[in-house]
Amino acid sequence: MKRILLILAALAAWQHWDRLEPMLLGNQQQVAEHREVILYATSWCGYCAKTRAFLGERGIAYTEMDIEKSADARRAYDALGGRGVPVLKVNDTVIHGYDPQGILAAY
């Protein structure tokens, strides 16, 4: 029974590591405040909606740029090598498409 509880606790910690890490590594929280996340997307894109939901579930603040409504957003998207949506820029890392593991790794 103890093994099962230990395994369940380890799985829960692994699943929620993004929430536990700031509590365990207090000095890293200041670094998190300076992260810049920009989502280049469209209103009709299903994967853009999934990316919005993913970021929202994890409490990751982001700025959304609609590449169809803003010429500046489109230019920035093109400069990043945009070849589909969503494109996410986390500080200096560019992520093409819906990639939850890539987002967390870059964040």
TrEMBL record:
Transmembrane segments: none annotated. PROSITE patterns: GLUTAREDOXIN_2 (PS51354). Residues 37-95 form the Glutaredoxin domain. GO terms for biological process: cell redox homeostasis. One of its GO terms (molecular function) is electron transfer activity. This is Glutaredoxin. It comes from Phytopseudomonas argentinensis.
